[in-house]
UniProtKB/TrEMBL annotation:
It comes from Sphingomonas olei. The chain holds residues 136 to 419 of 439 of the full protein. It comes from the Bacteria. This is EAL domain-containing protein. Residues 32-282 form the EAL domain.
């Protein structure tokens, strides 16, 4: 059902725009096609699942939101992590379908959470190329507005650099319908303060590259502290991802980091485990 709806929404939205065709060439093209075809089947046959990783608001001591991370329960290969298929999904042009599936599933799960008394914003990772895909943006805006969902989109700065004008305009459309835009992996890609200034983003996520060794490195604390100050000056809230130790959490708290996410608090978990985590949190 989700797939049919997603396909229909895309076909409808596409008819309003001229389609962009990518020609797959070179030795890897066949692999990309195979994975892309397998992914279509995976979406149709419900082999994908979402794992949720909570973000904790440090000062408020509460779970502020959760990030949805896709996993693939492959019939032969077992559990496959996104690092092994998102790239092929992007190159094989199924990332739009996969992401619409993700958004729909997140909206469904959000309803389940709300019915159990948990009002949680869910963040979804959005690949850069989708910010230039007008059909995807149209379909997504319609979907989110109709469902009245409380979502956030995580995008990297690098995704804006490709086509800044349409990316910024589309992020603004998302922001206008109440989607919170977060800059993901900050510091790990090609940073441009010029774009950072223009993006309608309310959250900045410091890449785990600077967080996992925060207390054993000389430079990382300096980078993290100045990033927090920069983000605050731009009126953004800061999330540190990859928080694995109490020592890192303590240091981030002193530095004024607003939110934390990482294995110390919770690994990404399936919906029932997220619910259990939320229930437990209520009793503390
Ligand atoms: P990301 O958005 O930077 O997500 C954070 C990754 O770090 C996740 O890996 C998460 O499991 C892992 N992580 C979380 N806490 C810790 C920690 O304390 N320490 C360490 N070392 N790692 C931690 P995962 O789930 O394998 O996802 C990898 C990447 O795949 C994500 O990176 C994201 O860029 C991409 N991805 C995941 N789901 C989607 C999706 O639905 N759409 C798109 N386009 N990309 C996705
Ligand atoms: Ca496609
Ligand atoms: Ca992310
Ligand atoms: Ca990240």
């Amino acid at each position: 059902r989700l797939v049919e709806e997603a396909e229909a929404a895309l076909v409808e939205a596409r008819s309003a725009h001229s389609p962009v065709r990518h020609h797959l060439v070179g030795p890897e093209a066949r692999d990309i096609r195979r994975v892309a075809d397998e992914l279509r089947t995976a979406i149709a046959e419900d082999q994908l699942l979402l794992a949720y990783q909570p973000k904790i608001h440090v000062r408020r001591q509460e779970i502020s939101s959760a990030e949805a991370l896709v996993r693939w329960h492959h019939p032969e290969r077992g559990l496959v992590l996104p690092g092994d298929f998102i790239g092929a999904a992007e190159d094989g042009e199924v990332i739009d379908l996969l992401t619409l599936w993700t958004i729909r599933r997140a909206i469904d799960d959000q309803r389940t959470l709300l019915a159990a008394g948990h009002d949680l914003r869910i963040f979804i990772n959005i690949s850069g190329q989708l910010l230039a895909d007008q059909a995807f943006v149209d379909a997504t805006c319609r979907l989110v507005a109709e469902a009245d969902a409380k979502l956030g989109f995580e995008v990297t700065e690098t995704s804006v650099i490709r086509d800044p004008e349409s990316a910024i305009a589309n992020l603004q459309r998302f922001a206008d319908i109440g989607i919170i835009v977060a800059i993901d992996d900050y510091g790990a890609g090609l940073s441009s303060l010029a774009y950072l200034k223009q993006l309608p983003a309310r959250e900045l996520k410091i890449d785990k590259l600077f967080v996992t060794q925060l207390t054993s490195s000389n430079r990382d604390p300096l980078i993290v502290r100045s990033t927090i100050d920069l983000a605050h000056a731009l009126e953004m809230e800061v999330v540190a991802e990859g928080v694995e130790t109490h020592a890192a959490l303590a240091l981030l708290t002193v530095m004024g980091c607003d939110m934390v996410q990482g294995f110390l608090i919770s690994r990404p978990v399936a919906l029932p485990a997220l619910m259990a985590f939320l229930e437990e949190d209520q009793h503390h």
